[in-house]
Amino acid sequence: MPQTTFLAICALIAQRKVRISVHAFARCSKRGILTTEVISGVVRGLPIEDYPDYHVGPAVLVLQSDSSNLPVHALWGIEKGTKEPAVLVTAYRPDPDEWTPDFRTRKR
């Protein structure tokens, strides 16, 4: 269940302990996604995939919406061996060909 990582990420964001990776900043800029919306919207997001044992640290994929109510998938993590900050790893618009219509489940 992605709740543990998700709740840790939300708690860190509430404490303003957040970092945007260079990769995330570049991807968001290229895709017209505002990082400020991703950060503020995570608490209303839905954790859809959890990676507690990811090699660079625990991470969670969160389904969020932007201010235009368009879906955004945001990958949040906490660097291995640390407890903070929450790191926005990347964010993108989910591809309808790769996801179910609600963008919660990968098509296999």
Query: Count of helices?
Result: 3
Backbone CA Rg: 13 Å
The count of β-strands is 5
Helix/sheet category: alpha+beta
Specify the helix fraction band: 25-40%
**How many domains, as an integer?**
1
Account of the 3D structure:
With 108 residues, this protein is α+β, with helices and mostly antiparallel strands. It has one domain. Helices cover 27% and strands 28% of the residues. The protein has a 5-stranded mixed beta sheet. A hairpin with an 8-residue loop joins β4 and β5. The mean pLDDT is 94.
Q: How would you summarize the topology of this molecule?
A:
Elements: H1 3-14, E1 18-20, H2 22-31, H3 35-41, E2 46-51, E3 59-65, E4 71-77, E5 86-92
Parallel strand pairs: 1-5
Antiparallel strand pairs: 2-3, 3-4, 4-5
Features:
single chain, alpha+beta, 108 residues, 5-stranded mixed β-sheet, 3 helices
Put the structure in a nutshell.
The protein has 108 residues and is an alpha+beta fold.
